[in-house]
Write a structure and sequence with these properties.
The protein is an all-alpha fold. It has nine helices and no strands. The model has no long low-confidence stretch (mean pLDDT 84). GO terms for molecular function: phospholipid transporter activity.
Amino acid sequence: MAINTIDRTAKQIVLTLQEYSLFASRAFLNLFRPPIYWTDFLMQSDIIGVGSVPIVILSGFFTGGVLALQSAATLSEFGATAVTGQFVSLTMIRELGAVLTGIMVAGRNASSMASELGSMVVTEQIDAMRALGVDPMRKLVTPRIFASIAMLLLLTIVSDAFGIVGGAAVTVFLNHQNATQYFHMAYERLHYPDIIQGLVKPLFFGYILGSIGCFYGMRTTGGTEGVGRATISAVVNSSVLIIAVDFLITHVLLSIFPT
């Protein structure tokens, strides 16, 4: 009995991965083939990008502040509190800025994509679009993925900037250190490979959260309860996959740009 349960679960996981791979590859190819619905892209960019700015700013600012507090407490034992700016800037730009932004935006927008598309599926609006000769993948899915990629890149830059500012605020007002020294160390130790690592990751994370949110939305079944399940699955799986892919990307980039 247990073996049969494991067998069914394994088959279900494999089938889901297969469906998602086909769905994601088709959506990716649609990014480069007309028609592209630019109006929908701009609308989704506003929803995903502009709507996520407040939470990205707050999360980035306080994350930078926490990094400054923790690093200063540790570095003070070695008399090296002057490198707090270096620690905060490198950590935010190379790692935490992209990952935190991806998870925050996934929680906000992957869920909304899944619920919105799921509601359209259960109310048969998707079938109506197909009857009218409109491809739902091009009209609904591709603009959302395209907007997620573009906006997550910009939001990561915002998160990095406010993370460094948050670290500066803590360093100056709580740790009573020199602001000029903080920003000098933050800038002096920052190199182009660090920036490249921080800007490559959001491209993958945006594609992940957009494709998974749309995937679970488009395969919704079971009425309103199914919409709820799709929303939960989209948030959980996109967040976990972002963290897993971050590990793989970091490993590859560190082999290309060794420290």
